[in-house]
Amino acid sequence: MNHHISIIMKKIIAGAFALSLCLVSCKKETKTESSVSTTDTLTTAMPPDTVSTPKNDSVASPSPSAPAPDNIITKNVGKYPHDIKFFEDKGISERLKKLAGSQYDEMVKNFNVEGPIASENGIYKLTGCKQHDCPGYATSIYYDAKNDNLNVSIDKNGKITDFAEKGKITISESLKAK
Known about the structure:
The protein has helices at about 1-40, 90-100, 105-110, 175; strands spanning about 115, 120, 125-130, 140-145, 150-155, 160-165. By secondary structure, it is α+β, with helices and mostly antiparallel strands. Strands 1, 2, 3, 4, 5 and 6 form a six-stranded antiparallel sheet that branches.
């Protein structure tokens, strides 16, 4: 009889363990879902080779004492592009249209899943990618406040196209990772 009770106890313990494991894993999934639905955005990691090593160019720089231009990018670090209606800002959208040309509309259309505006040493970064297909279409927009310079990098399934307004912006590895 003790042997029979021992088998039943083992089954109860195994069942309780399996149930608790299921609850813990479901709880984590629920937490992930709620964080996605409340912000409706995701941060995406770009491949390390997204931006090639910059070349030195002959861009005239304003004097070091000149203040950084105050625009929708510099005023909204930490905020999401959608929340600040980034592509509705005339000043930036006109520059991006001129820069990306025929790829502008596709870039805006596929800027669904986005990260917050990040910055480091006067260089700002915005990222967005196609919903349900981030590796298939991802965009990084860089802004150098000191030189008032925009760069756009569009990655379509690993084929990267870079656009530079006034020359290539030097991007640190730590900013790339943000």
